[in-house]
Amino acid sequence: MNSEDSTEQFGRTPSKDITVNLDSSLSLWGTLDDAGLGEKLWVLGHTFLLDDGGWVEASSRYSYDLTSGTQFGRTLSGNAFNDPGVDRSGLWSDGTTAWLLRDATAPDGAPISGRNKIFAYTLSDWSRDSSKDITLQAQNEDPMGLWSDGTTIYTADTVDKKVYAYTLYTTDDNGDQVFSGVNDSTKEFSLFGGGNSAYSDGNALPGGLWSDGTTMWVTDGDRSVYAYTLATGAYDSAKTFSAVISITIPPSPTRPLGAQTHVTPHGIWSDGTTVWISDYTDGDVYAFNLTGNPPVGGV
Questions:
Q1: Alpha-carbon gap, residue 183 to 74, rounded angstroms
Q2: Cβ(214)–Cβ(272) under 8 Å?
Q3: Which of 48, 71, 98, 286 has a Cα at 20 to 30 A from 8?
Q4: What's the rounded mean pLDDT across residues 61-76?
Q5: Nearest to 20, CA basis, from 122, 101, 120, 88
């Protein structure tokens, strides 16, 4: 801990910030070791590369060793993600299969048939596993973020303002897990529609989501992280917190120059103690306390 770290719940812990070599970071997913400690954080996002045709978007996949202690921001390694269809706006894995969200539209805005899915990959080599693809509900056409408890996988929708749920696995008569992928409307809930933000009306611009099994947190473009009771979908103002921080964006042909706030919180993941939130604007990942002294109040 350094002098800037807060001991308050949802307070900032800059010593655990992660510098990512991306123009935009979108999705976060982490693994835990047997002791329940953070082991590795996966970061998906994009950068802009200059070729003969001008600036083009290139998707990237980075992994970060969370057990490196004081080495935060120094052990990040990355690889290009050679799949132009991956939207990178949602990632979750059970350690064997990784599920990702993909674009449903072409660059010109035209819909692409067959893209209304959560696409499955084998985590070890990132090869496609179409047998575990999940077809989304027709209304769930603009999904953002993925989180699962291993049985149900959830995604938020930016148009429908709702969290959708899909069953990953069921148990057959022999006690074996069988992949399902069917919609489970009993676990769905609407996002908080109140608030008086100048940027959005409540949780109207969801980005990523993560849960500890009791509370689900959903990031939002209004720089807030909204909380819901997972079992009921009820909005929990006491656990809703602000993700506003000051950042300085360096000069770049693709980014403006100058100090700005944490413009667009997006991906979110926690090891149960620290919660990391990615920024769509500057590409870095910022750390907050998930636990600690009770906060003064919600947003």
A1: 41
A2: no
A3: 71
A4: 51
A5: 88
Quickly state the pLDDT bin for 71 (edges 50, 70, 90).
Answer: very low
pTM: 0.84
Q: Is 78 within 8 Å of 61 (Cβ atoms)?
A: yes
Closest of 207, 214, 182, 210 to residue 262, by C-alpha: 207
Instruction: Tell me the residue length of the chain.
Output: 299
Those residues with Cβ within 8 angstroms of residue 95's Cβ, 6 or more apart along the chain or in another chain: 31, 123
Residue 250 clears pLDDT 70, i.e. is over it: no
Residue in the structure block whose two tokens are 């022999």: 174
Beta bridge partners of 219: 225
DSSP per residue over 33-88, as a string? -TTS-EEEEEEEEEEEEEETTEEEEEEEEEEEEGGGGGGTTTSEEEEE---TTEEE
- Kindly give, in sequence order, each residue whose CB lies less than 8 Å from that of residue 205, ignoring residues fewer than 6 positions away: 158, 199, 220, 221, 222
CA dihedral 254, 258, 259, 262 (to 10 degrees): -10
Using one digit for the tens of pLDDT, what is the confidence trace for 16-68? 888 776 777 778 888 776 766 667 777 877 766 545 545 445 555 556 656 55
On whether the CB atoms of residues 289 and 13 are closer than 8 A, the answer is yes
Q: What is the pLDDT of residues 217-248, one digit of tens each?
A: 999 988 889 999 999 999 999 999 988 877 66
Helix, coil or strand: residue 232: coil
Q: What b-and-e string marks burial along 29-44, b requiring 16 or more CB atoms within 10 Å of the CB?
A: bbbeeeeeebeebbbb
d(CA 229, CA 291): 17
Distance CA 157, CA 203 (A): 11
More confident residue, 264 or 56: 264
Assess whether pLDDT exceeds 50 at residue 136. Answer: yes
